[in-house]
């Protein structure tokens, strides 16, 4: 079993996940180390930056040639003065504590989500939705998880969603919204349910929800940079977990994904072959534009990756033959 789930994980992980993670982690550690080094030499750094800012301003504004440095510094753009103030406020201890601050922020954010699931939802156990609990445990074991995460059902007020996350140093858990579970059970749609549960457990098994993973990818999610690193990495996560879900459910009709496209009532009426002809083999230009701005792959690309057994596209859809 160990070898089987290890092989499954290896085959399912998107080929660009590790390169993107490595790039984001390198940038995050690099920025932190630079800030740490600057905090020990901030006086020299401020003096160096100040000299350059004043020199550049004087070069662009010859009328300031007779002014002293202090007067010129009052005229430089506010952004430059803010940069000098920021460097001047750097403190080695505060920089060293940045990871701890991030951990506390994550604990607070995830703690509220966990608290909501505990307070407003229902935990799925052998006594509550026992058949769903059995599926969850079975999938967790097949993925090689040593501890079975908690699973909660929560009212999404019509929203079709499920997610998994982890309390730092405490526990991983999953949440499935009521409308998805209600339809899957009412229709006896075990394949779609297994796909969804397998996808969410995949995020836990592949460590996407761990606090250290999110800390190391922090710079990749900075505004602007996230379009090139953070969101493509998120799309790679989605594809990898889709592959795990499919391997555990064999949901070739992709009902778990089609439900997200057309809703809980109509998904069983979709002709998947006709859908593929129209949405996968057709033009992908505007789908690519939409895909660029989100951190999950667009649905038809996810379906294409499953039905054609390939790594999903991160930026531009390759033509499917």
What does this structure look like?
It is a single chain. It contains 16 helices and 4 strands. A 4-stranded mixed beta sheet has the order 1-2-4-3, sandwiched between helices. Strand 3 and strand 4 (171-177) form a beta hairpin. The two termini are 35 Å apart. Helix 3 (42-60) runs antiparallel to helix 5. The longest helix has 24 residues, at 17-40. It has helices at 2-12, 17-40, 42-60, 69-75, 78-88, 92-96, 98-120, 130-142, 178-186, 190-205, 211-216, 230-249, 255-262, 272-279, 285-292, 299-307, and strands at residues 122-123, 150-154, 162-167, 171-177. It is an alpha+beta fold. It is elongated, with a radius of gyration of 25 Å.
**Neighbour order of strands in the largest sheet:** 1-2-4-3
- Structural class comes to alpha+beta
Oligomerization = single chain
> In DSSP terms, counting alpha (H) and pi (I) runs of 4 or more, how many helices?
16
**How many beta-strand elements?**
4
The Rg value, from CA coordinates, equals: 25 Å
Distance between the termini: 35 Å
Catalogue the unreliable spans: none
User: What is the mean predicted local confidence, pLDDT?
Assistant: 92
Q: Tell me about the biggest sheet?
A: 4 strands, mixed
Map the helices and strands.
Elements: H1 2-12, H2 17-40, H3 42-60, H4 69-75, H5 78-88, H6 92-96, H7 98-120, E1 122-123, H8 130-142, E2 150-154, E3 162-167, E4 171-177, H9 178-186, H10 190-205, H11 211-216, H12 230-249, H13 255-262, H14 272-279, H15 285-292, H16 299-307
Parallel strand pairs: 2-4
Antiparallel strand pairs: 1-2, 3-4
Helix pairs in contact: 2-12, 3-5, 8-10, 10-12
